[in-house]
Amino acid sequence: MKKPSAVLYTGTYFSTDNGKLAHGLVRGTERFDVIGVIDTSSAASDAGEILDGHHRGIPVFGSLKEALEKLDAPPAVCIFAVATAGGRIPGELKARILEVLNRGISIINCLHELLSDDPAMVRAAASTGAGITDIRKPKPFRDLHFFSGEIRNLQTPRIAVLGTDCAVGKRTTALMLLRSLRAKGISAEMIYTGQTGYLQGLEYGFILDATPNDFVSGELEHQVLRCDREKHPQVILIEGQSSLRNPSGPCGSELILSAGAETVILQHNPKRPFFDFREDLRWPIPSVKEELEILRLYGARVSAITLQETPVAGTEEYRRLKQELSEQLGVPVFLPLSEGTDELAELVLRSVGVKE
Prior knowledge:
This protein is α/β, with parallel strands linked by helices. The protein has helices at residues 20-27, 47-52, 64-70, 91-102, 119-128, 170-183, 195-199, 216-231, 253-257, 288-298, 316-329, 336-339, 342-352; strands at residues 5-11, 33-39, 60-61, 77-80, 106-109, 132-134, 158-163, 188-192, 204-205, 235-239, 263-268, 301-307, 333-334. The protein folds into two domains: 5-134, NAD(P)-binding Rossmann-like Domain (Rossmann fold, 3-Layer(aba) Sandwich), CATH 3.40.50; 143-352, Rossmann fold (3-Layer(aba) Sandwich), CATH 3.40.50.300. 35% of the residues lie in helices and 17% in strands. The longest helix has 16 residues, at 216-231. The radius of gyration is 20 Å and the shape is globular. The two termini are 32 Å apart.
């Protein structure tokens, strides 16, 4: 079946961490055919080249008007692929959304503030026949699952890809690892926990930060069990959110305690000294060594550390950082973007006792 075409709106954020949702969709999605990015700060460029130096044939336009003039046909949807503080929609962004709806193009909203609750947006969509999809709209209570403890009986190995902070590349590493495992003939599945994983086309998961807290553990357990029941995989990867100790969104223990992940891959940005939260507060990221110890006390073992390489992957500096960290901690360290994840996949299989 043909995938619907999509343009990604990122405002001025594509080349920043606030554009990470768009980064994931530019890297690949099974759900959409991404035909362009709208970003005023990166126009007249290729989105892939801006992201990681790889040309992907996805042009960047300075405005919706320019995109519609240059594309062969209007997109089926416009995905507002930006992150804002608290998931709110600022006035300028609302103006751009109305512009899209008035053109008859459907909107996929990835922020917490719901467009379907805004009468002006609903009227605009109704007048042109455009659709509004709020990805982060919480599920109805009747569809939520409470933790049952059934996960305790599951034998399939679960591997959590956690991070020392948010926006360090956890999902990208997890997806690369998933592909490497499958390329080796391993039946592997991945549980997404954010909206990008859903938009990229992953089959199993839920949006953690749009789920009432009492049901996070149950929704996570339900998706893992459903995945195991329907696909019988040899390995299940679980995407982490934020970090264990980022004060704006501490997260990660659920994957170990509620999903039973006893093996962890820890993603780290060695050049980021402070949490990605209120830069003016300069809140230090704890040492990786401390994170390893916390995870051990939770009952999980860190099999590998993976490094986020920004802004340029494959440099001598990152190879040096990799070696230093491995020697310091006694844990294998990998550079997924520049080295791939085939060796990491082999290590993971040994860690959980699965043979190729």
